[in-house]
Amino acid sequence: MGLGCEKRRLVVIGGGVAGSLIAKSLQFHADLTLIDQKEYFEIPWASLRTMVEPSVGERSVINHRDYLTNARIITSSAINISETEVLTGEGRLVPYDYLVIATGHTDPTIPKTRTERLKQYKEENEKIDLASSILIVGGGPTGVELAAEIAVDFPDKKLTLVHNGSRLLQFIGQKASDKTLNWLASKKVEVMLEKSVSLDNISNGNSTSYRTSDGETLNADCHFLCTAKSLGSTWLKHTVLESNLDSYGRLMVDENLRVKGNQTRIFGTETCFSGCKELEIVNGRRKRKQTGNIQTSFSKGNCITWEKGCSGTITIHNHYWKCSWID
Ligand SMILES: Cc1cc2nc3c(=O)[nH]c(=O)nc-3n(C[C@H](O)[C@H](O)[C@H](O)COP(=O)(O)OP(=O)(O)OC[C@H]3O[C@@H](n4cnc5c(N)ncnc54)[C@H](O)[C@@H]3O)c2cc1C
């Protein structure tokens, strides 16, 4: 950066995989502010392992402050934006030259601090530990992965997985669904397809009674709800980006992740795609390429320099189950 040049103000909203990677990569090239609802980054695909082995959380839940040494961190929700500023839930106006919206998905049950998150994992682990029978609602990746984690570490628990679709993991092929079903069956997990469970009127006795959509009663000591999380872009509905949302409320971006339309300084990450697309797209090569695009566009302003290519902070291998964080 040349003398007398002001660094461009980059605001990143959302401290998930995309937002944290972008913030970490660009913190020395911009005047950077990260706005996230929570104080920490968490590796999402370690979360279900952490429920059965809480010590994993010590490594997978990382305070933003620990890797963002040259950035401002605001722990709050973004609730509105204008062409030049972001408004946070606590009433702060944060000016920007460039904006990255990486709000992916949102979950109101996730606590604000790392300490509370680790405590939550311990409580979930105790819940599993104390139960003899467990009901898992939802047969997408989260429900299947949680069932697998519990089945492996707690083989004596009676596990039931109820899914309203005709097959597990519907976003991938039939062969993978069949393999998954067979594997769970081999671990004695009872899988009920094309059924749903109402969690409104559950009755408590020695164990809890749940009623399925076809009137059957299921007894289990506890349950875990593993259905889809809410989209993190709904807050954009009444903002200047209202017309940039698709019919599902997802932010539409072009191939360079620029918000579609006439915005050249606002970027959205791929979580504006849903479900399978999201999983398919988050692989190392693609992720680095896309972050690279943001860096390229961002560097077009005066006085911004950055080293070509991504410095490889998070590597998500092209294999669904593996990831690593590289400093
Ligand atoms: C259990 C599980 C296992 C997974 N396994 C894999 C896997 O093995 N491999 C793989 O590639 N992918 C996997 N995924 C998917 C992967 O985690 C997602 O694709 C990825 O997290 C998307 O990253 P993101 O940063 O775009 O969004 P998110 O991770 O959803 O992050 C969004 C961030 O924005 C914040 N936020 C939301 N709204 C606001 C707001 N208004 N203001 C401020 N902050 C806000 C949230 O607090 C959060 O920090 C898995 C997901 C889960 C849940």
TrEMBL record:
InterPro entries: FAD/NAD-bd_sf (IPR036188), FAD/NAD-binding_dom (IPR023753). The keyword Flavoprotein applies. The keyword ATP-binding does not apply. Residues 9-267 form the FAD/NAD(P)-binding domain. SUPFAM superfamilies: FAD/NAD(P)-binding domain. It comes from the Eukaryota. Signal peptide: none annotated. Keywords: FAD, Flavoprotein, Oxidoreductase. Belongs to the FAD-dependent oxidoreductase family. This is Uncharacterized protein LOC107410236 isoform X2. It comes from Ziziphus jujuba (Chinese jujube).
